[in-house]
Amino acid sequence: MAYCVHCGVKLGESEKKCPLCGTGVYDPAARRDTSAPRPYPVHTPEQVLKKNKDFLQLLAGLLLLAPAALCLVIDLLVSGTVTWSAYAACALALLYVAVTVPLQITRKRVYWSLAVSFLCLNAYLFLAERFSESGPWFFPIALPAISLGTALLAALIILYRVHRLNKLTLPAASLMAVGLECLAIEWLCTLQSSTALGFTWSPFVLAPCLFIALCLFFINGNRAVREEVRRRVHF
Amino acid sequence: MAKGKRWFKLDNAAKLYPAISTDRWSSTFRVSAELNEPVDPARLQQAADRVMPRFPSLMVRMRTGLFWYYLEEIKSPLRVQEDTGHPCMPFRYHQDHGYLMRIRYYRNRISAEFFHSLTDGSGGFVFLKTLTAEYLRLGGADVACENGALDPAEPPDPRETRDAFLDMPLPKVRISRKEGRAYHFPGTREIPHTLHTIAASIPCAPLKAQAKAAGATVTEYLVSVMLLCAAEDQASCPRRRLLPVRVSVPVNMRAFYPSPTVRNFSSFVNPGFDPRLGDCPFDEIVREVRAYMAYQVNPRLLSATIATNVADEKNLLIRLVPLALKNLVISSIFRKAGDKLVTATLSNLGVAKMPRGMEKHVRRFEFQLGVPSAPLYNCACVTTGDEMRLVFSGNIREPTLPREMLSFLVEQGIPVEVESNLEEEG
């Protein structure tokens, strides 16, 4: 019977190292019986069941497929061609993406999820433009606006991860992103409408966003102010 | 057909567990008896076949009702199984005829594992003693039916399957024990279905002497050692903010309200202290634990806490909420609280009294808690004769709590012998 030279506990006959500290058995005087039976059988790991996300995805898919198919059938029966049901089908497809993508989001796959959402939203709007024949607005407005929005979101995620944005700087950066996105949307709209280039509503969004963001950055950077604010608005 | 099958409502404590169980985790525990001779599986099966009908509340499967889960009788016999390297794995409702308990054997050891909805440690121990006594009797030994070993030939006593929570006097007052998060030993969480087990054998005499010198009972002493180890570990690693250290100690309600029930009938108290108030030397920790236990472990306070849970169970509005919704609420509450409120659990079953004729054949008993829901190590202990068996079970790779706790006992001059299910790496 050996003792752990580190912890001082007596080690069971079958222990090849101390289970508490991992120190190997050291007992020059004693000959240890290495064939001593273990107190527990050898562990054969059980099949670990994965969290059943696939089932939830399938369920969501089936639940949404049924009304989509029903819409297409009714549309075909009534008008003989696909008209309004395409909107419904695309909307349901978008809903499917909205439901299932969050299931797949993990820390590692957040950019992948963002890319899928980007593609699906664009596809939906592209189809909407085609079916409604109201275009052209997808390529000149929607695509650049969504691209900028996605890029801003990705930039926020990178900033959050790399620079560890806190409770003050994260909303500040998000507000700035919202302001910029609004400015870009209005700019794209005016380009399309071939009216004089000018901003009407977006500065009213950008200005308060920028003001609040700068205030938050200032509060974050100034310790005395930060403490004062915390003291007055704590809850 | 389920027609004619007996069924049981879940008792008050049992209602929580099915709502929070998944394929990856369920609340389990196990009790074992180590014999002086190797276990004969065929004889064990025979003993199990004779003993199981004596415990109708254990021969059950979990069923889903509209508003609550319930337990339904199983007619098929329970098959004994060889032990596994990692005990107390989750129960799946569709396996083994739906049994929520297992009987296992390995070398000299007979073990019984239970889903916590069926029974608690004391109830499980009654089953184990009855099974072991019958096993020994089948081998020709003369073992009496006493000291917790029931007579398998007798019909089941209806009081044994009663929900004892409903029989005890409950005060009208409700007591809330809201507590915040407690410190957890940092560690690498293992994959599901992993339970590291470190069993320590400790002679009772030096342990009792140390506890007595500290002015505490053995349980209070061990809880204090656990708290000290947790506080020291927390102080040694730089953290942004300190958290209280707290140990959950189950309390057997049969001690206050004698009941022959083999279903759940226990409550718990959470002694601890707050390191944010400053360092606390060991003798002060012991004093705090003693004071806490003296105040909390009394039938009035414990029953007031139980009354709170029973009142919720009896609330008409809650009862009318569909089970799926109840499950959602219960599991979300458990995820936020649950094991996060305590640093570890220390469950002491006390001194195991053996029926006459069993001492010659049984070397010791063992009690082990299953996989914790949070990444931590728990500890369960039971005393047989002059030896206490402490079993640490955890789902983190680093055995910080068992190492610190057992090293402390060794430093106090208490000899400790350890063995484990940890296997050689590489």
List the helices and strands and how they pair.
The complex is a heterodimer of chains A (235) and B (426).
Chain A: E1 2-3, E2 10-11, H1 53-79, H2 85-104, H3 110-132, H4 138-162, H5 169-193, H6 202-221, H7 223-233
Antiparallel strand pairs in A: 1-2
Helix pairs in contact in A: 1-2, 2-3, 3-4, 4-5, 5-6, 6-7
Chain B: E1 7-9, H1 16-20, E2 28-35, H2 41-51, E3 60-64, E4 69-73, E5 81-82, E6 101-106, E7 109-115, H3 121-138, H4 164-167, E8 196-203, H5 204-213, H6 218-236, E9 245-252, E10 266-269, E11 272-273, H7 282-296, H8 299-314, H9 316-320, H10 323-336, E12 344-351, E13 362-369, E14 377-384, E15 387-394, H11 400-411, E16 417-420
Parallel strand pairs in B: 5-6, 9-12, 12-14
Antiparallel strand pairs in B: 1-4, 2-7, 2-13, 3-4, 6-7, 8-15, 8-16, 9-10, 9-11, 14-15
Which shape of chain B, going by the Cα principal axes? globular
Could you say which structural class the secondary elements and strand pairing of chain A correspond to? mainly alpha
Oligomer: heterodimer
Residues in helix, % of chain A: 55-70%
E-strand count of chain A: 2
Mean pLDDT of chain A: 82
Largest sheet of chain A: 2 strands, antiparallel
Structure description:
- The complex is a heterodimer of chains A (235) and B (426).
- Chain A has 235 residues and is mainly α.
- Chain A folds into three domains: 1-41, no CATH class; 53-134; 136-235.
- Helix content of chain A is 64%, strand content 2%.
- Chain A has a two-stranded antiparallel ribbon.
- In chain A, a hairpin with a 6-residue loop joins β1 and β2.
- By secondary structure, chain B is of the alpha+beta class.
- Chain B has two domains: 7-167, Chloramphenicol Acetyltransferase (2-Layer Sandwich), CATH 3.30.559; 196-420, Chloramphenicol Acetyltransferase.
- Helices cover 30% and strands 22% of the residues of chain B.
- Chain B has eleven helices and 16 strands.
- In chain B, strands 8, 9, 10, 11, 12, 14, 15 and 16 form an eight-stranded mixed sheet that branches.
- The longest helix of chain B is centred in the middle third of the chain and has 19 residues, at 218-236.
- Chain B is globular and about 60 Å long.
- Chain B starts with 6 loop residues before the first strand and ends in a 6-residue tail after the last strand.
- The model of chain B has no long low-confidence stretch (mean pLDDT 90).
